[in-house]
Write a structure and sequence with these properties.
single chain, five-stranded mixed beta sheet, two-stranded antiparallel sheet, 2 helices
Length: 152
């Protein structure tokens, strides 16, 4: 009887303490062109460690989307809320980016006139330069240049 009781206790302990042994999740971070982030392997019931936000030239990190869920987890929010009993053993979390916006400012240099109004431009998006409104006696307008390239 004592041996049977010990065997039951050992079996129950084994089941209780090894319950989560095979319940691991692989969390993959797809940075979508940003700096690499290593995958995380976590046990069921544990939380995902929020990685450092990735960096991508010309873009601002806008948060993560969890594969299969349309909602974006904003930068700074907790990813762990999406890990639960229904989560598949592998989960892909994808970085979302917003292209940076800049203001293009025109100057007439050493010419005369009023330069065109500042123009908003978005990183990696085609745009057209404003039409010239500047003049300089004895010169024909050749085009717009970047200040550092024309010596100003």
């Amino acid at each position: 009887m004592v041996i049977l009781l010990i065997a039951i206790v050992l079996l129950a302990s084994n089941l209780l303490f090894n319950k989560n042994k095979d319940e691991t999740y692989v969390i993959t971070f797809n940075t979508n062109g940003g700096t690499k982030i290593e995958d995380q392997i976590i046990l069921k019931g544990n939380v995902v460690t929020r990685p450092t936000d990735p960096i991508k030239e010309g873009y601002t990190f806008n948060g993560w989307s969890v594969d299969g869920i349309d909602e974006i987890v904003s930068a700074g929010d907790d990813i762990a809320q999406y890990i639960n009993a229904d989560t598949p053993k592998s989960l892909k979390i994808v970085a979302q980016w917003k292209p940076n916006e800049y203001t293009l400012t025109y100057h007439c240099g050493d010419g005369n006139g009023t330069p065109p109004a500042p123009q908003p431009i978005t990183y990696n998006t085609l745009f057209a330069f404003a039409q010239n409104t500047c003049t300089k006696d004895g010169y024909n307008f050749a085009g717009w240049g970047i200040e550092s390239e024309i010596g100003h």
